[in-house]
Structures are given as C-alpha cells and as structure tokens.
Amino acid sequence: MASKSTKMPDDFNIYYLLKGVLPLETSEEPMDESRDETNPQYQGLTGLRNLGNTCYMNAVIQCLSSVSPLVEYFLSGKYTAALDKDNGEIATAFAYLMNDMWLGDFDCVSPEVFRLVIGERYPAFIKKTQQDAQEFLIHVLNELHEALKKVSKKRNQGTSSSTWDSRASYVSESSIITRLFEGHLSYDIICLECQNTTYKNEIFTVLSLPIPYETECSLEVGVTSKSMMAYKFVLIILGASLYMNKYSSLKNVVNHFGDLDGGHYTAFCKHTLTQSWYSFDDSQISEISECDVHTSAAYLLFYSSQTFSVPVKTQNG
Length: 317
Fold this sequence. Notes:
It comes from Anolis carolinensis (Green anole). It is a single chain. A hairpin with a 6-residue loop joins β11 (264-270) and β12. By secondary structure, this protein is α+β, with helices and mostly antiparallel strands. It is built from 8 helices and 14 strands. The protein folds into 2 domains: 14-151 and 233-304, Cysteine proteinases (Cathepsin B, Chain A); 183-229, no CATH class. The protein has a 7-stranded mixed β-sheet, with helices on one face. A 3-stranded mixed β-sheet has the order 1-3-2, with no helix packed on it.
C-alpha cells in the first residue's frame, strides 16, 4: 500500500488488516523514478495485481476509480458522515483502495483487502475462479449504497397530511451511488394490432441492452417502437455498440475476451486531466488512442453526461 497515505477514519480495523496483510504481498511495485506522483497527470494511473483470475474485479475497480466524483467523495472523507457503522466494512475498504490508487507511492497495488472484505459477504468473489464483471459491479454498487444511504419518508403529491401512511407516502433512499449512477428509463410500447400505447418509467443503475437484430419489428414482437431517455450522471450500458450521442460521452469500458465460461477482462479508461485513454490490464497500464477503444470486446460501457474533473482531497480528509 502507499506509504504516504494518511490513516483514514476507520471503525472496522481495516487499517490494521492492511498492516497485517501487506507484508506478505510482493505486488506493490515502487513508482517509476521518472514519474512525479504529485503531478495530477499521473494520479489515478495505478495498476492492480491479479490475485488469481481476478481480472474481472480489477477491470471494474479501474472503471470506478475513473469516476472522479465518486473518488473525491471517498478521498475527502465525506463518506464517513453517511457511513452505516453496522454495515460499513466494504465501503471503508473501498475508500482505502481509492486512496492508494490515487495518492499512493506505487505503480501497482494489491486489492487483496477489498477482495477479502467483499468475499465475506459474497463467497464467490473470494475464490480464485473467474466471475462475471457485471455481477461484481452490481454487488459493489449495492453494498456502497446500503452503507451510505440516507433514508427519508416523502409524501406523495396531492395527499393531505392526515393521510400520511404507506399509501400516501413512500420511502426515499439516496446515496452517492444513486446521485451518480441512478438513471430513469422512459419508454412506450405500442401494440401493432390495437395501436394501444403503454408508457412506463423505470429506475436503473445498470442497464442491460440486447444486441439489436437486423430484422424489422413484427406481430411476433408486438412492439413498433421503444424510445429511451437516460438522466443523471453516469449511465452504464451493457451489450450495446459504442455509439455516442449528443447527450453523453463514453468514459470507461470493461472488455471481455473469451467465452461465457472464462476469458480475460481489461479496462479502457479516459483520464480526467489529460483526456487521454489508457488500457488497464491488471498491473499493466498503457496509453492508447481513442480509435483503439472501439472494439467488439466491449462488455460494460460507462457513459457520462458531464465532464469529470480531477478528484481533490480536502485538507481535513
């Protein structure tokens, strides 16, 4: 781990777990002497050691590490104010990992502690077998949300205060995850026979889209149109093309090479300062051109409607 990292707020002894695990690890590679770690150009360019078929984990972590508003939330220590002390081990371990990846002394660090902590909740991730990157991402986002959420009860519009019950109100749960990753999907389904239109709204964090067929809609499908609108900060789209419209731009990509039962994961991430693209292949990092990002191996696509800025760690963080 990064020796220059300050001790972060910790009610779960993650700091001491780090001290106990890291002497056994040899994955931390000293920083290249030609690289000035105080230069923001190099911050966030830290490789992750493969712990045995954990490339799926490394690729997802690199993409999350490139979402600078999320990183800044943890580096600044803001997360501690919202942290559920009974359910905060995973969020705390994630904060330490982000600290090492952005403010550390090494070109490569080990995600071992984060893997151990999340593996206690999801045993599949502690095994040294290949797992699905989408499944891992969903679990990480869910765990961070549960640890950092703020619950409030809101009254539906058009109801009186005397009818404040489950029918007249709803529970709202907000967190840094919902603020950054939650989107609203609005679409309509039109029946080809009766022309009846159904309008629906759905909330999502990860949106799975099937690869479109080249055939036209038919009665067997029963749908003539499906229009979608996505709002909020980061949109994660699976199984789609790398087409970028005027509402959003591509920021990160998780690539999968191989078949459904195995293969290898890598990540392409756009650096927040230089706006250059980098390839993250476990511990190996290399700069790539934008045209290299567009490949058929793309599996998870991170889109943003806003420009990311470099994360800033506050003085009291």
